[in-house]
Every structure is written in structure tokens, then in C-alpha cells.
Amino acid sequence: MIGRRSIRTAVIVAAFSGGLGVPPVFARHSFGLYDMGRTVEIDATVPAGRWLLFSYWQRATGQVFSGNPFEEPGVWSGRVPQTGPGRYFTADIFSSTGISSALSYLDAHVLPGNLALLRGGNLAHDSLEVQAQMFWTGDLPQQFRQRRGYSIVPYLPVLYTPGDASFNPLNPAWASALPPKPFEFDGDTGARVRYDYQRTLTDLYAERYLRAVSDWAHSRGLRSRVQVAYNYLALDMLRSARYVDIPENESFDPGWAKAFDPTLPAYGSDRWRHVTDSYRLTGSGAHLAGVKRATIEFGDDFAIYRKQPVDYAQQLNESLAGGITMGLLTEFSSASTEWPTPQGGAALGLGDAWTAGWPQWRDWPALLRYFSRSTQVLESGQARIDVAIYHDHGLSTVHDSRPLFASDRMERAGYTYDFIDPLALATVEATATPGMLYGHSAGYRALILDRQTSVPVQAARAMLSLAQHGLPVVVIGDPPRISTGLLHHTENDRAIERAMTAMMRLGNAARVAGADEVPGALQRLGCLPSASFGDGSTLLSVHRQTSEQDLWWIFNPTDTPVATRAGFLASGAPYLLDLWSGAGERVAQWSVEGQRTIVPVLVMPHATTVLLVHRGEQPGRHVISSSAEQIVQHSGDVLVVDSRGGTQRLVLSDAQVRNVDLDGLPRPLDLSHWHLHLDEVLPDGPRQHDLDLVSLADWRSMPDLKDAVGQGLYTAVISLPAQWFGADRESILRVGEVAGAMQLAVNGHVISEQTTGYGRWPIGQWLRPGDNTLTVRLDTTLLNRMAALRAAGDARYQTGPTPLPTAASGLVGPVTLISAARLPP
Prior knowledge:
Blueprint: E1 8-17, E2 31-35, E3 51-58, H1 73-77, H2 96-110, E4 122-125, H3 140-148, H4 189-219, E5 223-226, H5 237-240, E6 246-250, H6 270-289, E7 295-298, H7 309-321, E8 326-329, E9 332-334, E10 354-355, H8 364-378, E11 382-383, E12 387-390, H9 409-412, E13 417-420, H10 422-425, E14 447-450, E15 454-455, H11 457-468, E16 473-476, E17 482-483, H12 489-504, E18 509-512, H13 518-524, E19 531-532, E20 540-545, E21 549-555, E22 562-568, E23 573-577, E24 584-586, E25 591-593, E26 596-603, E27 608-614, E28 623-626, E29 630-634, E30 637-641, E31 647-652, E32 657-661, E33 669-670, E34 674-680, E35 687-693, E36 710-720, E37 729-739, E38 741-746, E39 749-752, E40 759-762, E41 770-779, H14 783-791, E42 810-822
Parallel strand pairs: 4-5, 5-6, 6-7, 7-8, 9-10, 12-13, 12-14, 14-16, 15-17, 16-18
Antiparallel strand pairs: 1-2, 1-3, 11-20, 19-22, 20-21, 21-27, 22-26, 23-24, 23-27, 25-26, 28-31, 29-30, 30-42, 31-32, 33-42, 34-35, 34-36, 36-41, 37-40, 37-42, 38-39, 38-41
């Protein structure tokens, strides 16, 4: 059990009589104190019969701060008692004493002489790596009785589950199922007691530990930023998040398939959806608390040396889709420009410890500007989430890789969702807006009960009240019929039955057999998604609302472009925002159907776009329908883009019809001939390469560049005849796959800050008749050379338990120049 450091131990002895189907009955019990290592003598009078004897004692775990917080129980248990100087023991997270001591240390030893630390910043608390045989604190029995109304002592045997309070992701067996409970009562007594125990743990963690962190921060002009409840099943992240200013998550371990896993979760898999649902817990906590910011520590994992800008963007965008608003990138280790050698956790295959010696170091400013613009959009106004899913299970990042919500049909129908805990349901804020849930901060328009068998009686009454005031409720499976917790459970069970029966009689409550049926039920109840992208769409969105605007951040998590006809629940003039450049353009083609604005949307692989609807702005003339592949607004001009040519028909908002002949435009031009100059970086110094390419390809297919890493410059010279130019046409550059970080330039003009591939840009203003020079600056990761050094057996480069896999490098393409028609006024 976890507690403060002590050399004395309290012993609780309990004797259980008879069968295991009844609550325990004490024959006699004694409490005692004894010094570590001494023999304990138990004085008990036991009647005749069969008995089980249990003994429990409290002691410090012996866990100290070290380079590896994930030690096996035998390691930290052997360290108790440790009274020597210089030992920093892990604080008891269920007591205010440990955290108060740590904060007092900051006051006495860190802040004096460093008052700049207090200038409007955050007090950051990293993830929990506390280890225990069973979570406990000194006065837990008293606190349990006070909060739950009965003594926990007679029920101690059913609380312990081996591994539940100690997690070690560096152990290859860590992600396996928890061992069975050594002891259990018949019936549901054990489950009820464990529910009360876990709720009490969250009470103490939130009220004593997290509140102390926040109060200390506020008293010194800081905000608290905490990775709340992170790593542990027993703690409720949703409730804990409401005790800090900025709840935070971490991308380190959610969704690992196994220990030391170097792969990133693939879109659509249960593993990927599990990760995104974990992020939703953090985002939901922020929404329920009414705060704008939820953060994530990301970039540190076992995919060492391999992550391109598109991978970092994908990792962050996945969390943003779950309600996170800001990413905190880890880690930068050195300003040295020398060849970096593995350090820190690299010996385990962990982390990308960036230095100024990485080829892609110069590309980070552009990527960070993209991240910061994403945060600016996602912290605008108020969150607007379609539905809330009842959740009462803690975090579930460990020992589980299933998503928290079983079906992806709701996302594919366009719905956004959060999770909500039972205590949040029973607040005044929950019911402030009739027909909505948390209307002031999240705007949920429906509640989902997902195969919930039991709920607290207060939550059941709150659900009934919400439904009676017009909130649609969808129940998957049977509605809950029993209460949680042990005290007065018979009366509470009857109250649950009455509340759920009354709720299901209402016209705005529906029952479905499975999670796949939820979207249909929501639609029948009149709760439509605020953004829809067609049947089965892979696009994910986040909705924010200000006093004048509705914003939708839209993300394509897949490897292929997505073009669709999207509908947005808002009226006004629509704009598209580019988060790479910060520029916005009016949408060239859109229409209105009822209360929805219909916009053709194209989102490239792993990319995002932002649609903004400015309510009240009078829309100008625009295209409402067309047969072309794409209609683009560019600097006041409307461009008609279609690689097929032919005559394309456009209908305008003033009822005019335009037929645009594209056959007179030049045919698309594929750029295949390039010169590549590479400044290769190596441990023993730079090396230069110059190659003339007749086609674009992965460097690994080129003998001279098979293991090369560095900074390359691709150059293509394009000779354009006069027919590419004119007032009725525009040139658009399309770039396909880029395995690295790129920067594009035409005749010396940088045309985009976008470092990732899959983009298209109008470049006519920088072109001229005759020869034109197109350059693509391409910077790689360190991966392929590090993999070769490791494979060669160099002791300095042995990173992780398995060989480093190589990955594609270079401009893979295709790169195409196309001609688009400019619509006449």
C-alpha cells in the first residue's frame, strides 16, 4: 500500500467465517504496531469452523525518483525503510502532506533568486509513475467511512488486484490482462465495494493533491498544468481534470501494441481509436470545467529517429480531434550542430532528442507556426460537441487497447462526442440550458448510455431530469437497473429502476441494440451532427463557436485525399483558412440547404483545413454548383480546376449559368527530370552528392544514397510557352508524397511554409514565359544512417531491443503543373 515513508507498520487482521457469498463477520480482530522485521503475534479467539485469515499492513513503497520510475515491486519494496540523506521518496498522491512538502521545498530552495519563474507561467506536473501493491493512505479507513458511510476494513480482501496499482510499460508483459483477484465475494458485493474504494481514491487525489497544486500555483500568480490521473485505471480523469487549470495528456504509452513498440497507431484500428478516446477524456474534462485549454506532451516514444513533420503533425492532429487544444513537443537536448549520438532514453529505443545537428532542425519554425495557429483556432470561443457518452471507469490507458466507445459509425456520420462522468451530470451547470447538457461550455445535444449496467442514484435522477427537459437520450442495450456502491443499495436499486423506467417512457429516449445503431437513433430524435461529410466519411472535425462565427477544424487522418460535399449547421459567408500560411479566402462554391451551408471540401492526406462561417455577413456572388473537380478562390479570382479538360458547367448564386471550356488550356505537365544536390551528414563529417534524376524515387533505391541523411536541393527547369499565360488562366503546382521536410520555391520565391507533402498552390504570379526554376528543399531525419550504424555493431548506436527499420527518404512525388481557368467577372 502506498503511504508516507515510515519505519513502523500498522497491522489489521481479519478472520472470515463460513461461505464466501456473505459479507465478512469478525470473530475478533486486533490492531498493533510493530517495528519492521519483528515477529507479529496475533491474539484471537476463533470458534469452531472453517476460517480464512487475512492480514493487512500499511508501509511506504520505497519508490524514489530515478532515471527509471518503472521498477518491479521487489526493487522498491527492498528499499524500505530508507532513512539516509538525499533520498527523495515519491509523494503519497492521496495525502496533502507529500505534495505540500514538495511545494514548500520549491518555496525555500528554488524560487528565491528565480522569481522570473513566477511571471504568468504554469506549474507543470508530469504523469504519475507511482507504484504500489495497493493504493492507500494513512487515514483512508476514516475517510472512506466519512464519505461512503460504512467501514472498509471488513471488505479489504476484495480490493486487491495484483498489478492494478503498479504499471511498468518497459516490461514486455505489461499490457497483458490483469491477474485474477485472489479473493472475491459471491454476488456483486465486491464490485460495489471496489466502486466505493476507487471513488474515494479519486476524491482524495483530487481534493488533497490536485487542489494543493492549484492553490499553490494561484497564490503565486501561476496556473496549474497537470497530467491528471495519467496511467491508472483506478483514478477518474474526467473528475480530476476539473481540479486543475489546464488538464494534460501524454502520447507516450496509449495504444502500444507491446512494450518498446516503434510503430504509430494506424488510423481506423482499435488501437488508434483507443488513443483518440484517451485524448477525448482529457478534452472532455476541460469542456466540463469550462476551460479553453487542454494540452498534450507528444513526440516522445519508441519511434526513435523516424518521425517526419507529417508524423508529428499527425500525432498532434489526432489529439486535437479528441479535444486537446495545444501540443507541447518533447524534446530538445542540445544546440550543438555536431553529429548527435544517442543519449538519455535512446539506449531503450526511446525518444527523439532533437539537436541543432538534425537535418530538419531548420524546418521546425514553420511546423511550430502551423501548430500555434491550430491552437488559436481551437481555443476560439466555446466548444460545441454533439453528444456526451456516459463514462464511469477511470482512464483505461493500460491493460487495454480497445476504444472506450465500441463503434466508429458515429464519427463516420459526422458526430463529435465527449465523455461525461456521473458527478458532472448532477451539477447545476449540467441543466442550465433546457434541452442541452452543459450548454454554457460544451453544448451537448444528446446523452448516450453505452451498455451501462449500474449508475449512482444521483446520476440516474439527473438523467431523468435532463430527459424531462428535452435532452435526447440513447440507451445501448438495456437501461441500468442497479445502483453503484454498497450503502443502502437495496433502496437505491429501486430508485434506479423507477428513474430509468420513467425516462424510457419519454418520447425523446430511445433504446438500440448496439453502438452501430446510435447515429440512426440520434437522427430520429432530431439530433443531427453539426458537421456532416457524407456516409462513412473518414474526416474528423472540431466545432468552436464565437459571438460572430462558427469554426470547424477538419482533419483527414488517412493516407489518401478526401473530397466530399460537406454540410455545416450555420448560416453566413463561408471562408477557408490555411493553417500553414495563416491566410483565409472566401469559399468559391457553396450553397444553402435549410439551416446548413453546403461546401465541397478537399482535404489532403494527414492534413487539416478550417472552415469559418461568418454569421450575418452578406454573401457575394458565388458558385453554387459545378461539374468541375474543384472551384478555388484565389486573390479575388475564381479558378476552375479539372485535369480531365472538357466543358464544365457552373451555376452561380444569381442564377447565371457559365460553361467554361478547359480544352484550350495546356495539358498537365509532370516534372520528372530533376537535379539533386545533397549535403549528406555523417559522424565523421559532411559529404556531397550531385545526381541527375529522370524520375523521382525513394533514396533507398539509389545505391549512393541508400543510407544517406542530410539536406538536399531538388532543382527542375521548366520551359513554358506563351499559352501557359493569360488573364483567363492560372498555373497550379501539385506536390504528392514527400518523405522529409520540404520548402518550395519558384524562381527564388518561397511559395509555402508547408513542410509536408500533398499540397497544391497557385504559382502563376511567379512564372514567366521561357525557363523557370522550381526548387524543393528536402531535409531528412537521421533514421537511415542511424539504422546502418546500429546494424554495423557500433556500440555508441545500439538503440533499443530490436534493429531500427529504415524508411523512405526524398521527394517521391509526383510533382505536376496544371493549368486552371480563371472565371471571367
